[in-house]
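Appendix B. One record, verbatim.
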Amino acid sequence: MSALVISRLDYCNALLASASQDQINRLQMIQNHAARVVMRKRIRDHITPVLHELHWLPIEYRYKFKIATLAYRQFQGSLPSYLGLNSRECSRDVRSNSEKRLHPPKKTNLKTVGGRTFKQIAPKIWNSLPDDLKSVDSLPLFKRKLKTYFFREHFG
């Protein structure tokens, strides 16, 4: 049951980067309700310990996880070309060339959605991650460490 719920919440969740906070809150309520059903908790029970016990990330972290994973794939060379992100590299041999950083495209004129597109959001999320996390060599290990990082960030 848990896998079914999570698969439905994660379907196209990278699109949530452009969702309003109200829409994210509505999805969070759905996740909270699903967690209560899975764990057979009452509506009055506090949800944070339930999410912690299930090891479920809140919706906001779930879409950040997906976007960071896609950004990681940019450096592995396995990101689809239509999602192409710009790696930040300098033509000279400088210390920052060893860092895995993404460069957001130039500012868009769209004030409503332009700043929330994948190509704008992915570099912000990726560049905010710690360098030791970005330097992991394999995708499965990166995913495991990323989930642990977000889990600790949210649940402390």
